[in-house]
Specification:
CATH topology: Rossmann fold
Number of helices: 7
Strand content: 5-15%
CATH architecture: 3-Layer(aba) Sandwich
Shape: globular
Radius of gyration: 15 Å
Order of helices and strands: EHHEHHEHHEHE
CATH class: Alpha Beta
Mean pLDDT: 93
Largest sheet: 5 strands, parallel
CATH superfamily: 5'-nuclease
Number of domains: 1
Structural class: alpha/beta
Strand order of the largest sheet: 3-2-1-4-5
Helix content: 40-55%
Distance between the termini: 26 Å
């Protein structure tokens, strides 16, 4: 199954503050090696936004280049709005990007890989599948 990787996973994996790799980073590396990773434009934009130095921006843009954006269709925006409304009616709040991720993943029958706890609420009410991470030995 193809995996739509959320911004928080990319951010954690791309952080280089520690020489110890996180399980999230290792999982993403494995998925990349298996050619299962997908991205959408809004996630790319979130990752590239706010970088202070142009060299950082250019380096990150280059790292993401091998991953073409999935085409987002008008129907995805409509579905995202429906998902937003459905979750809101259940008392669940979320961002427009979160619901767009859910809509694209549902249409494309992809799992979502995220560390964002909000998705644990969405999955109870939306036709989405969450990627189950493998466990790594330390």
């Amino acid at each position: 199954m193809r995996i739509l990787v959320d911004t928080c996973v990319w951010s954690e994996a791309l952080r280089r503050k520690s020489s110890i790799e996180s399980d999230v980073s290792r999982e993403l590396q494995d998925l990349i090696l298996e050619h299962r990773v997908e991205i959408i434009g809004p996630i790319r934009q979130e990752l590239l936004s706010g970088l202070r130095e142009e060299t950082q921006f250019d380096r990150l843009a280059e790292h993401l280049e091998p991953f073409p954006d999935i085409t987002i269709e008008t129907a995805d925006h409509v579905t995202a709005a429906k998902f937003f409304n459905k979750c809101r009616s259940k008392g669940i709040q979320g961002s427009n990007t979160d619901f767009l991720i859910c809509a694209v993943a549902a249409r494309r029958e992809m799992a979502i890989y995220t560390t964002d706890k909000d998705f644990q609420q969405y999955v109870k009410h939306l036709p989405i599948v969450m990627h189950k991470t493998r466990r790594f030995d330390s």
